């Protein structure tokens, strides 16, 4: 098991290094970096300004050396500066990561709380009204677009019923765990987590059905083992492996893919920062956010692999 974990860790490191090569290569394939610092149309840059930028960006060195210098800065936490304000990109990301983590964590909790229990009940009581209710939730969750769910939630709960506020993450002077702050989180979290909750529900139900039909479950029941022990000790532990992988990658997807939700609800997170970088042509910010989000995906995938080993020690990796 230790050798497997070491290999997975090394593979994650290699993947991160490969992602830095891709991100750096795309930043150069996008065009001359100096053009980003010129006035609209590419005019107005003096020779002195051009020479200063070439030295500052290291464009007078070979491409491999430029990549090495850039990677060294990234490893030190230096993600560059914005073009217009020359602010540190690392500071912008550190300011925006907290709202995104709050939104992603809330959506993840909602997806797990809704998906796993309903999936188990739907499998254990197949053919019942609980089964049909769970399958309906899964069907609606995977069929309805996320932006439609968000807009319908705003129309119903914010405009018509006026139960929940919409727009921004709420005032900064309100405690995070108070209802005055959490009420701003309810609609974005539910809208973001509904689709993944449906996917986890379907996968949990399918995995549970496969396990419940296995011969060792039939044998356990024939020996008189209680239904609760059969479901939770024998069936659930073996059926949870596939949902576990989806859940880990879903959490990464919440953090990295909340662009639409953050845009609709004006949520000041990483997704909103990425969209602002696209609209304002802030390529250093866009490059840094892409690299940052890629790193989150790789780390979450590694965590899922580690959880696999400790959740089911029977599995052996050669």
Topology:
Layout: H1 2-29, H2 47-57, H3 63-75, H4 89-124, H5 129-143, H6 146-160, H7 179-212, H8 215-222, H9 227-239, H10 241-256, H11 259-264, H12 270-279, H13 283-311
What's the rounded overall pLDDT mean? 82
Bulk shape: flat
Distance between the termini: 8 Å
The counted number of beta strands is: 0
Known CATH architecture of the largest domain: Orthogonal Bundle
Question: Which regions have little confidence, pLDDT < 50, spanning 5+ residues?
Answer: none
CATH class of the largest domain: Mainly Alpha
How many whole angstroms does the radius of gyration measure? 24 Å
Helicity, in percent?
Answer: over 70%
Biggest β-sheet strands, sense, barrel: none
Structural class: mainly alpha
Q: Classify the fold: give the CATH topology of the largest domain.
A: MetI-like fold
Percent in strands: under 5%
The number of helical segments is 13
């Amino acid at each position: 098991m230790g050798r497997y974990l070491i290999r997975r860790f090394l593979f994650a490191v290699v993947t991160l290094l490969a992602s830095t090569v891709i991100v750096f290569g795309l930043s150069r394939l996008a065009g001359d970096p100096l053009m980003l610092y010129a006035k609209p149309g590419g005019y107005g840059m003096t020779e002195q300004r051009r020479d200063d930028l070439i030295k500052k960006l290291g464009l007078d060195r070979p491409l491999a050396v430029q990549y090495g210098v850039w990677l060294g800065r990234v490893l030190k936490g230096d993600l560059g500066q914005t073009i217009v304000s020359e602010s540190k990109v690392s500071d912008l990301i550190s300011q925006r990561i907290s709202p995104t983590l709050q939104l992603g964590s809330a959506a993840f909790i909602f997806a797990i709380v809704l998906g796993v229990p309903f999936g188990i009940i739907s499998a254990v009581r197949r053919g019942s009204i609980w089964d049909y209710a769970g399958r309906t939730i899964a069907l609606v969750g995977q069929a309805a677009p996320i932006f439609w769910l968000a807009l319908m939630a705003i129309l119903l709960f914010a405009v018509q019923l006026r139960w929940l506020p919409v727009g921004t993450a709420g005032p900064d002077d309100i405690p995070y765990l108070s209802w005055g702050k959490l009420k701003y989180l309810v609609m974005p979290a539910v809208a973001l987590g509904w689709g993944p909750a449906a996917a986890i529900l379907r996968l949990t139900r399918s995995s549970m059905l496969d396990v419940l039909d296995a011969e060792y479950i039939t044998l356990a029941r024939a020996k008189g083992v209680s239904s609760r022990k059969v479901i939770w000790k024998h069936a659930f532990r073996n059926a949870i492996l596939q949902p576990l992988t989806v859940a880990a990658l879903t959490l990464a997807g919440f953090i990295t893919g909340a662009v639409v939700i953050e845009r609709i609800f004006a949520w000041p997170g990483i997704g909103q920062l990425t969209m602002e970088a696209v609209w304002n042509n802030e390529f250093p910010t866009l490059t840094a956010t892409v690299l940052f989000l890629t790193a989150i995906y790789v780390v979450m995938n590694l965590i899922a692999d580690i959880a696999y080993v400790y959740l089911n020690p029977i599995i052996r990796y050669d």
